[in-house]
Structure formats: C-alpha cells, structure tokens
Amino acid sequence: MIRTRFAPSPTGDLHIGGVRTALFSWLYARHHQGEFILRIEDTDIERSSQEAINIILDGMQWLGFDVDEGPFYQSSRNEKYQSAITKLLETGNAYYCYCSKDELDTMRETAMARGEKPKYDGKCRNRENSPDNYDSRVIRFKTPQHGETIVNDLIQGEVRYENSELDDLIILRSDGSPTYNLSVVIDDAEMQISHVIRGDDHLNNTPRQINIFLALGATVPTYAHIPLILDENGKKLSKRHGAASVLQYKENGVLPEALLNYLVRLGWSHGDQEVFSLEEMVKLFDLQDVNKSAAAINPEKLIWLNQQYLKNYDGETLAPLLKEQLDRLSINYTQGPKLEKVCEVQKERVKTIKEMALQSRYFYEDFDDFDPVASKKHLRPVILEPLSELKNRLMALEPWDSNSIQQSITQFCEEIEIKMGKVAQPLRVAVTGNGISPSIDVTLALIGKDRVIKRLDKALEFIQARSA
RNA sequence: GCUCCCAUCGUCUAGUGGCCUAGGACGCUGGCCUCUCACGCCGGAAACAGGGGUUCGAUCCCCCUUGGGAGCGCCA
Predict the structure, then answer these.
(1) Against a cut of 0.90, is the pTM above it?
(2) Which is the catalytic residue, given A80, A87, A117, A239?
(3) Contact A279, A289 (CB under 8 A)
(4) pLDDT-above-90 percentage for chain A
(5) Going by C-beta distance under 8 Å and a sequence separation of 6 or more, which residues neighbour residue A414?
(6) Which nucleotide is nearest to A46 (CA to C1')?
(7) Fewer Cβ atoms within 10 A, N terminus or C terminus of chain A?
(8) Strands of A170-172's sheet, edge to edge?
C-alpha cells in the first residue's frame, strides 16, 4: 500500500511551493490507489499558529486535496517521541550532551577556520558520567562515524553521503521537546509512510534521518525529493514574490483547477500536453517523470490557463464564484441580470473571475463619469443625431432581447447608411461608461431597457454639453 | 569554506546517440476574423552555458570550468 503525506509546519502562509509538494504527494497516492495523510508539524510552539493551521486546512479544502488520515498534530504526539528517544538512549544510539551554546559556536568557528564543515565534534559522545554541574543538557543521536549512507531517491537517483560528513544531531532540546529530524522519522515510521515526497531542500537531511530509522530498526521509506520552485525572477520564493498564500489566488479569482494544472506542469510533463483535468493528472502523474531542476513560476501562464478553464465552464458553475467576487467589491447584484447570464457572456473575455466582476459593474451599478479616453473618442457631436434617433427606436422596441436589439440596430445602420462600428462603439460607451463589453446587443439586453434609455439620455446630454 | 543537487528559446518544457535545418506551451510579434474587448485561426523572432574527451556520429554518455540552488541550528 502506497502511503504518502504532506507535512507542513504552520509557521506562515501555505504558499504555492507547499501546494505543489502537497499536489505531488496527493497525486502519487491517488494514482496508486494509496492513502494520503496530513500531518501538521507544529513542534516549534513559538512559531506555530492556529491561524496558519487554518490557512493550510482551508487551502487544502479549496484545492480539493482529500485526506485519508489526519490532520495529525505533532504537538500532541509527544509521548511517542519521548519513548523513541528513551529507546535510542537504551540501545546506545543516543547520548546526553552538556555543551553550552558558546562552546558550540566556537566549535563551529574553528571548524570553519580549518576549512571543514561546522559540525559538532562529538565531545560528549563518550562521556561516562554527567558533569558535576551544568546549565542544561540535550540529547544527541549517535550518527555512525564510518561507512556511507545511500539515499535511493526516486527523482534524484542514488545520492551517497560519507557518514563522516554527518554529525551527531540534537534530537531532544534542553526544554525537553523533540526536534524536527527526530519527530519526522518517528512519525513517518509510525504512520507507515511508504513514500516521502518533499522539497529537495530536505535532501541533505535525509541521510541523517535514514540513520535514525536504522537505529530504531524501522523500515526506511522511499524518498522522492522534488525540485524547489522559484519566483518569476528565478530567485527563491519570498513573501514579496510569488509566495503569497494560496488563498490569495482564490481572492484574485483564480480557479483551483487552473492553479493545480499550472503547478503540475512545473517539473512534470506528459509530452506536449498542457491542459490536464484532475482525472488526467491522477491517471498520468508519476514521480519517474519529474524533473530534477528547479522551475521559475510564470504568472502569465497561470492566468492563461485560468482563462482556458473559465471558457469551458458554464454559467451555473461560475455564478457562485462571481457572486463572491462581487461581494468582495461591494457590488449589489440583486437588481440586474442573472449572474449565470453574465458569466456566460463574460467568461471568454476575461482572465479571472475577479476581472469578470470588475468588468461587469455596469450591469448592476450606474456610473457618474464616462471613461475620458473612450468618451473623447466616441461621444462626439457627429453621433448626437444618430444616437438620439436610435434611442427613440430602442424605447419603442418590443421585446427587449438581444435578437430584437441586434435587428433594430442593424436596420438603423442600413437606413442611415452608416457602418455598424460607427454606432455600436458610441452606444457601448454610452451604456457601459467605457469601450469594453460583450457584443452590443447582448450588452444592452442584459443592462435592461430602462437603464439603457437613462444612460443614453445622459450620454446625449454629455455630447451636447461638449459641443456647446 | 565544506557536502549535496541542478544546467535546452525570456519562462515552463519535449528530446534519452543518428528521426533535430531541436518540437510544444506562455509571453512577445506580423496577419486574418471583428461593433469594442476577448476568443479563435494562420505566420514570425527566440535555446542545446563553455571546454575537453568517448564514438563513424553527440542536446543526449564521461570529465573539467563557469553559473545557479540547497544543507551544514536546541527552525522545519
């Protein structure tokens, strides 16, 4: 049974790097009909927060990552870590260390000065008794000093480490709490994780962890270290660039499917295919096809994908999402066209739902001013007469639907021998306030007769004032 | 500094020794469509980091250089 896990530490936002790690773990489990476990690594009580936990949980739900087990919290699993440490102590695989912070610092400095790694030198490793007095003590794992540890990584291949490059890491802090490297091992062993899929920033921790598995007599899981993702400038993800919370994407009107599709193509591919439904991802994804090199995010491509998804969704699906965005903008949509209809006509002309909301304002709200550029260009004296006449015709038009409107305008244009574009665009500016909208007949139909007439009056006044 | 990882268009990638005058996608760009904005369609510019090998033949294998990245915490 394949069992994977996502193990974020709730010390900040769940950014897209973390989401991709979760995605790969989740996909791998689903692809193999395995199980996906969520574990919150909150051993650092100082930096962990409930807020961050909520963001993780909300984000996972939004993205549709269903978990088979968990969330487990490391903070409530302390006994397990303690008993493991006791066992390591008893089997001679761990020892108390009384070295002070200052001692350790100078130890590192001198090692560096000698051109070596700043490792712990094993001073307390063979100590027989505890010193007479000491400020504090920690417990260190006794890393083998000879031989090598081999990581057989599904993505990185075989990576070898000389054990002499490793040092005796602290597994229990002076305050009695276990450290990361200890708790992951205990949890992965106890939860029977078969495949540890995580960022390759953990690759160098892996030999240390393998040694702990071995000392405990536990089964070492299979590892897959996926390359990190970089910001749009090829730099490490930071708060400023790209590392915004996943929920930020939601707020910006990005569809979860589009985000996942975008993320899955970072480091993974399937020939020339760009668009993958969730089902296809599950079916096609495999760790063997994951790249080893880091990938920079490309927001424009994400947005393009989002548009592709938007285009293919129907109004029913999109309406609730548009509703959220309108709410966010405090646009009252109770008086105006049905949201489904608006979605239907807007979906292929915008890139995000947020943009759709912004572009749909005039369906629900009157505006005070015309866009300066658009009105200067299209609301000119020459159009005063035709527009006025067209208003009269529209006033008399029955029924008020896009077909009739289209017919009426076309006929009018033919009669006065004027091109469609010459009247449609001024009309558009008059009723929307700017030069962008769906086709003019649909736009008028959705805005509604009363509003159209009122806005035309206003536009006519505007033109008169301008020519005076 | 030491250890480990990486290296194809600006970006994401295909490519697993001859099919490559290197393919696709985003973006950019020329055009078509067109009532605006988009969509869609057709076309274009754009890359194998450098140097050595191995081989009849290297983007693909090996080595070095250079350039990125990660780790070396009582953070995770």
Answers:
(1) yes
(2) A239
(3) no
(4) 69
(5) none
(6) B75
(7) C
(8) A94-97, A138-141, A170-172
Report whether A74 contacts A187 (CB < 8 A): yes
Using a 10 angstrom Cβ sphere, with 0-12 exposed, 13-18 middle and 19 or more buried, the burial of residue A324 is middle
Measure Cα distances from A430 to A155, A178, A345, A443 in Å: 59, 68, 19, 12
pLDDT single digits (tens) A355-389? 999 999 999 999 889 999 888 888 888 888 888 88
Backbone angles phi, psi at A199, to 5 degrees: -65, 150
Q: Give pLDDT, residue A376.
A: 87
Encode pLDDT of A386-432 as tens digits: 888 898 998 888 898 998 899 999 988 888 888 888 889 999 999 99
Gap from A341 CA to B2 C1', Å = 64
Would the Cβ of A70 be found within 7 angstroms of any atom in strand B? no
Task: Give me chain A's average pLDDT, please.
Answer: 92
- Spell out which residues of A between 38 and 57 contact strand B, using CB within 7 Å: 41, 43-44, 47
Chain B positions under 7 Å from a protein CB?
Answer: 1-8, 10-15, 23-27, 34-40, 68-76
- Determine whether the distance from the CB of A424 to the nearest atom of strand B is below 7 Å: yes
CB A242 within 8 A of CB A297: yes
CA of A8: nearest nucleotide by C1' is: B76
ipTM: 0.94
Backbone angles phi, psi at A340, to 5 degrees: -60, -40
Is any atom of strand B within 7 angstroms of residue A420's beta carbon? yes
Active site residue A239: yes
C-alpha A230/C-alpha A210 separation (Å) is 28
Name the pLDDT band for A43 (thresholds 50, 70, 90).
confident
Q: Which two tokens stand for residue A351?
A: 């890139």
Selected residue with higher pLDDT from A237 and A378: A378
Could you say which residues 197-236 of protein chain A have a Cβ atom less than 7 A away from any atom in strand B? 200-205, 227-228, 230, 234-236
Report pLDDT for A463: 86
pLDDT at position A241: 59
Strand B closer than 7 A to residue A440 Cβ: yes
Pairing, β A222-226 against β A195-199: parallel
Nearest protein residue to B27's C1' (by CA)? A300
